[in-house]
Amino acid sequence: MFWHEKQTRIRFTVIIVTLLMIAIIIKVFYIEVFQYKKLNTLAGDLWSRNLPIIADRGKILDRNGKVLATNITTTSLYLVPNQIKDKELVAKKLSEILETSYDDMLHHVNKKTSLERVHPEGRQLSFEIADKINSLNYDGVYLLKEAKRYYPYNNLLSHSLGFVGIDNQGLSGLELKYNDYLTGKDGNIKYYSDAKGNRLNVAEEYVESVSGLDITLTIDLELQQAVERELDNAVNKYNPEHALAIAMNPQTGELLAIASRPDYNPNNYKNVSKEVLNRNLPIWMTYEPGSTMKITTLAASINENIINLFEDSFYDSGSISVDGAKLHCWKAGGHGAQTYLQVVENSCNPGFVNLGLKLGKEKLFEYIKNYGFGEKTDIDLIGEENGIIFNLDKVGNVELATTAFGQGISVTPLQQVRAVSASLNGGILYKPYILKNISDTKTNNIVLENNPVSLRQVINSETSDMVRFALESVVANGTGRNAYIENYRVGGKTGTAQKVENGHYMVGNYIVSFIGFMPADNPSIVLYVAIDHPKGITQYGGTVAAPIAKSILQSYIDIKKLEPDNSGMPKVYNWYDKKYKVLPSVVNMSLEDAKKILKEYKLEYSGEGNKVIYQSPKANIYVEENSTVKLMLSN
Q1: Which of 411, 422, 463, 550 lies 20 to 30 Å (CA to CA) from residue 368?
Q2: Contacts of 415 (CB under 8 A, 6+ apart)
């Protein structure tokens, strides 16, 4: 009996031991086969150290591939505390070079960590400082390459581009909007050390960083530079509270240029107030549009067949009464009898009040809504505002009348540009956008691409043709004459909006504006310029904003190399205007006959002979009277 129990215990023990051995074998097999990589990595981490290689941020380019935001190489200071032998000496020397606190630096070198980044005083060091640190040749002190964001054109497009922080993360504008695409993947240099941090004689491993993706904008750098230059001139000349400009391709919704003043240099954004940093005025600022809003009333009236521009007339006595409220024209005494084309040319408020009353509030506000006023355009920029329009149930005849000429509602410049573009391009409202595409520079693959988005048809194409005609007439014969460019077809509308403060209109304080386009028969650009409270000049859109727009459009002509076209409306000159006439051709004429025909011009000659073989300027374009014409002569 005893022996039988002993055998049972032995068998049981053997079984237990066998099972334990099997379990151990299985566990070892599992560790060796299935957990090898994980455990090997964890073990390696105990004696490996990674020195980071910061990835370059993707570039931002204009529509023609010109660089608007890029990176420059700097160095940053990293420490491996266990490798530093004389910590007090290293802290003293580094604090002297970096001009920082010795106690702070001593804290860095004594940190209980495998790798210490000296932040922020050791980040993005200049070449001179980095060279001084490098010359110390201390163990445990490393200078590593780091990319720093750089904007080669300084203030240009600053509010839209935005800026990045010291860790290369987007903090504002497009840099923030598309940060996930622009941010690259960091690499590293891996080396090995013992438990005390001493570097081992083992080959280093190098993991290359991967740059972020590039983004290409719809912006045209040359046009953007022209816009910024003219805004700077306006600031110097008029000392306004604000100034802004925005240009769009009306056929697609692409932004071609956008700028405002005050602006800032994103290379030094830390020295700028938040009010300036966060206000991209063309999409953020809301105000009463004034007479530029009359384009909406005009388009609605034509589209609804309420008026005939050439046959219907309106008598302007200088004011019009609506439910006991007297609304005045800008011209004392009024314009008298006018066709509605002249009402548009003269920007006559009572005439537009009459159009608003003819339309009625339901119809006018239907068009206002269809044009996109009172809602965000959803442009791919940060900080856009909605604007404010009346609730229809609160609109009486007075509100209807003031809305018809641009008073009592609040819109953004971008909303105005988009709406006017729809009035000019055949009646299609497009979604505006500034991003053209996002691409991988290594593969040249397009990762994301924007294309024109048509939202709705607001007016018919025949109405659009008539609006373009009327606005070209405004520039040739009306309040926009200061934007007229000889030999080119320009249309537009002036605006003068009285500013509101605490619910009351301010005295002598206006936002003056001009919205123009060219070529008038088939526009490729719509340009809006607004100057807030210009000083030292009569505050009218035609006297302040129109000349600025003209200068920008003249630059656009040069940039796009547009051919002269004098098939549009000739300008009706005032006594104080420079006079232009179509220059006749005298090529192949005798010198004597050429002199008779060009008697109103100054002549210069080159060559010898009695026959004209070439003239400059060329014939059949408008040339200023008494200007110089050069003739080349031959026998």
Answers
A1: 550
A2: 372, 373, 377, 387
Residue 498: helix, strand or coil by DSSP? strand
Q: Is residue 538 located within the same domain as residue 404? A: yes
Q: Cα-Cα-Cα-Cα dihedral of 572, 573, 578, 583, to 10°?
A: 40
3-state secondary structure of 278: coil
- Summarised one tens digit per residue, pLDDT across range 17-71 is 777 787 777 777 666 666 656 555 544 544 455 667 778 899 999 999 999 999 9
What stretches of 534-626 show up as alpha helix (H) in DSSP?
A: 545-560, 591-597
**Is residue 599 scored above 90 in pLDDT?**
no
Nearest residue to 418 via CA among 254, 281, 546, 260: 254
Number of domains in the chain: 4
Q: What whole-number distance in Å separates Cα of residue 423 and Cα of residue 458?
A: 8
Residues 436 and 516 in one domain: yes
State the catalytic residues: 291
> Which positions ≥6 away from 219 have C-beta within 8 Å?
62, 63, 68, 157, 160, 255, 256, 257, 258, 434
The answer to whether residues 210 and 241 belong to one domain is no
Strands 116-117 and 187-192 come out as unpaired
3-state secondary structure of 86: coil
- Alpha-carbon span 149 to 173, nearest angstrom: 14
pLDDT tens per residue, range 514-561: 999 999 999 999 999 999 999 988 888 889 999 999 999 999 999 999
Which whole number is the average pLDDT over 580-600?
87
Burial environment of residue 28 by CB neighbours within 10 A (0 to 12, 13 to 18, 19 or more) = exposed
Same domain, residue pair 14 and 120: no
Please tell me whether residues 392 and 514 are part of one structural domain.
yes
Cα gap 168→119, rounded to integer Å: 14
Least confident of 46-50, 267-271, 291-295, 489-493: 46-50
Mean pLDDT of 286-290: 89
CATH number of the structural domain spanning residue 412: 3.40.710.10
Q: Is 39 inside a domain boundary?
A: no
585 or 78, higher pLDDT? 585
Nearest to 479 by CA among 309, 327, 315, 329: 329
Give the Cα separation of 89 and 138 in Å (integer).
10
> What average pLDDT does the segment 159-169 reach?
90
Percent of the chain with pLDDT over 90: 47
Q: Which residues pair with 216 in a beta bridge?
A: 61, 437
CATH code of the domain in which 607 resides = 3.30.10.20
Residue 569 lies in a domain: no
Question: How long a stretch of residues is the chain?
Answer: 635
Residues 208 and 239 in one domain: no
Question: Which domain does 22 fall in, by range?
Answer: 2-34
Domain presence at residue 40: no
Looking at every residue in the chain, the average pLDDT score rounds to: 87
Indicate whether 284 belongs to any domain. yes
**Are residues 55 and 24 part of one domain?**
no
Tokens for 318, please give them.
Answer: 């200088």
Reference 554, options 271, 226, 154, 257; nearest CA is 226
One-letter amino acid at 219 equals: I
Do 521 and 449 reside in the same domain of the chain?
Answer: yes
